[in-house]
């Protein structure tokens, strides 16, 4: 193990958690991320028992989660494995696929709030019909001028993958929205 | 005081407010206009051109006259319509466009000079002398003619934006809108109901007619309560849908906090972008007036507005309750005002109706076949002249309601150039073909304006809209309502010699229209621009149709033949702040931070913006007083010891697949497919037109895996172009790409001692020149097992490496390198030193890759392979490009104290300094600590053959001229021995 | 405007970057006498009809697919959208 100490995008050793209004925001640096793309002649893949979903879809199996990012492309998430070479593990689990390490490319932000509040939050942040982010749906979209992967894990949980370098800007937008939504 | 009983105001609370410094009281539910009228104040402003005294004409957003500056200081909002400004405790407002007190405006002299201010007067009067326009005429006109002024201070309030998606958007919450919303809501559709007023109900709040024998506001309240309880309905009050855009997208502004003294933690306004599968336009109708002599005095209102003030706001526009009020109408609806005024106990003079057979509906005096032909009253109406059968009588009268019929509010239906259609029976334009798809006009805005017809029409429209979406909706039981026939006459204006106003806000009279006619400005678009009709902030809502009818009369054409001008968004004014979406200052756009940002901040670095990125520009040390001292020190450290620079911002694209090499051969101008695993190559990308647009490195990590870098600024563009190549040009290739810019923290370790430094952190990796030569790359581990990538590439010309680790370790790696290199003189350097180092080395960067240069111009001609096809290859060989003989050169001032100014153009000494003799330009310049003076790079005609020549650099913008010696574009180590060492 | 993405359904045009005439899919052959002239046409001459037009749009803030969108430039009516990769494959298949 390296003795270098990893820092979160905010320059801290521990993940940031705040609760603007009735939202709970939590940075999840423990989650490993790698992309997966089918190569020509590869019919499909089922890494870690995941059934790779179709457009706009999300699939979970134990600690793994996959969502569709483009034609023949997915992003695979694994909780608690950020400090491992997850891309290598995925490559082994998905022969005939191109795999790219993405763990530090994105900051995972979990947003937890009662369902109506999540709906109001999405209204402020993203120009998508609610069904595109209904529970079990995931999509790459634009929030606060930034490309964001938005995953609706459940009615009360939204997971956002923000470009690591711009996380502070997205976090600011989330906090501002959360505080405003708490007002009468 | 002329507050009368009744109304929809909350008398249990009293609000104090001030107008022009005087204090008044009103109640919740009042607008500023209704509260002022209830206090006997009806003079609220001065007209635009003639500075005529003016009071409110309307009771809604169409108001042309009663424009005030609301609030003060940074929150001052000029040109606010008092008729829609919701009263709050402590409201302050001031009138506009006068010099001296409102009651005695020094510029009212303009009114006496009115013959000079006729239609087109700007074009006729201020033509000569030409020089006077900018210096004299324009400032004078701007001072004299106008509206309120901005505070000049920054807007202190917050704004927000949001996005709504629905099955049905209902625009307007009057009779038609409420029944449409109710129908759709009960069917379970996702409904958004938007209304500009602060209370739902629209015209139902202003009328005395009952719904099912009960007051109409009772029904409104019941519907309001039902809709609010439904989860599928979103009610947006105080929200103006201002524009209809393509494919069911609408723009709307919600005035979240404009009814509060200060927004506090709230945003002031929210901009909503509403995407609706279907929409019902239930925007109602706007009454029109009848121009007659001196028809613009305070106290002369639209009859429907007079009725609304009496019924909804319990206010009469007179100073004393016993003052006489009359109605001048060409239609039956005006008589309703008379009846309501009677019921409210007003002192009604009677109804003047030009129709000889005018009906009488109640116990009031009827002047049938009569017209109003004149008025008196300096700051408010005091008497009117009624002419019947050639006989004129002056009668005391303090308020007059005027009705010339109603114009459907069809604006949004015409935002896609849908042409309104003239309906001769309604004497009005109604929505025509070509409106926004999926939008159904209903109720008064569709010409079906009786309460009963509007209620039914709204429900039917919603039902029809939803059935297209496969949602079946039952028609609700609607209350019984008035269904009076619309009887009116095509009486457009009262003839006469005196000025009769058509457009109050821009002071356009019937005479101006007649003049435009005489001067052949007859088509509506000419009429509008010649007279400025309808070009004020109210966009002529109360004026345009009347003006068209007057012009039609003059030309002898019908109104239908005359046509209308085009309607465009916004329906009413929208503040720029809310369109800006609310983010200001540093939050205006996202900022991207490098992995070492916080570390650099702690070192006291100065930062510079590079696109969205913030990069360390230089790292000042104690004692350094000028940025150049820091930069010189940093650059020197790289040349003599070792420097560290965060280069994470360079775009990184992961390219994989069995055809990755072939793919890269086609997007780079040079060969990449032949690159050996473990090696890096510098690459050029061309546009298809043959010009250079980006450069970078391409590292082959495995047989089927490359890592490509781009310049910081072009990362997105290169990615998009690579996707274009992959999907659109060569979809048969097996290649997958993904941006990994943020995933890896990349640090340049540059300088003669860089190998020594790196050897202290790698885990048993052989960095020797033999094992890891120039342009080698590898995956390895550092600092005890951390996965990393290393590239032996150099931007500075020194022995150099770039090392990449997962981004979260970037700051720790930087810190470790600083600690480990302390004895080697390790120095962090920023973008300024980076620039100096690359100019000294003659490396092309953004200033050279400016879209006008070719590979040959930069001395890189051999990098465009003719052994293969690649993007831009064919066009790079065309005559115009291949024949360009400008070449990259170094430039050295003869006088060491003279700076090289980038952007200067190059001329042969003695030759004329003009376009025809231009020899090239200076792309980059810096002060080089290595050379000891200012140096530059530039492209020069035949530059490679002119080494040693003297050339003149001229910069007319900076006013500089300098003699420069042409030298090779490498100021350090031209043989490149250092980076291969 | 709303673009009917063949995989994702209606998505706002804000998510897309516009390129223009879909004729750009038909890159000329670099071989032969007329290559330069053909590239000149390809690079500099574009259709810009007032009416139905086939255009390239990039779903930059979505799945990063290039689409061929058929749009009436006068009315902004959108008549259809296809994945550009599919159109390109068909084009190349037809050429071979």
From TrEMBL, chain A:
InterPro entries the record matches: TrmE/GcvT-like
SUPFAM superfamilies from the UniProt entry: Folate-binding domain
Name used for this protein in its record: Sarcosine oxidase subunit gamma
From TrEMBL, chain B:
Domain SoxA A3 residue range list: 498-581
InterPro entries, alphabetized: 2Fe-2S-bd_N, FAD/NAD-bd_sf, GcvT/YgfZ/DmdA, GcvT/YgfZ_C, GcvT_C, GCVT_N, Sarcosine_oxidase_asu, SoxA_A3
Domain GCVT N-terminal per the UniProt entry, residue ranges: 597-868
Record keywords, A-Z: Oxidoreductase
Keyword set includes Oxidoreductase: yes
Domain named Aminomethyltransferase C-terminal: residues: 886-973
Presence of keyword Oxidoreductase: yes
Family: Belongs to the GcvT family.
Name of protein: Sarcosine oxidase subunit alpha family protein
Organism: Salipiger mangrovisoli
TrEMBL record, chain C:
Source taxon at top rank: Bacteria
Gene3D superfamilies for this protein: Folate-binding superfamily (3.30.2270.10)
Name of protein: Sarcosine oxidase subunit delta
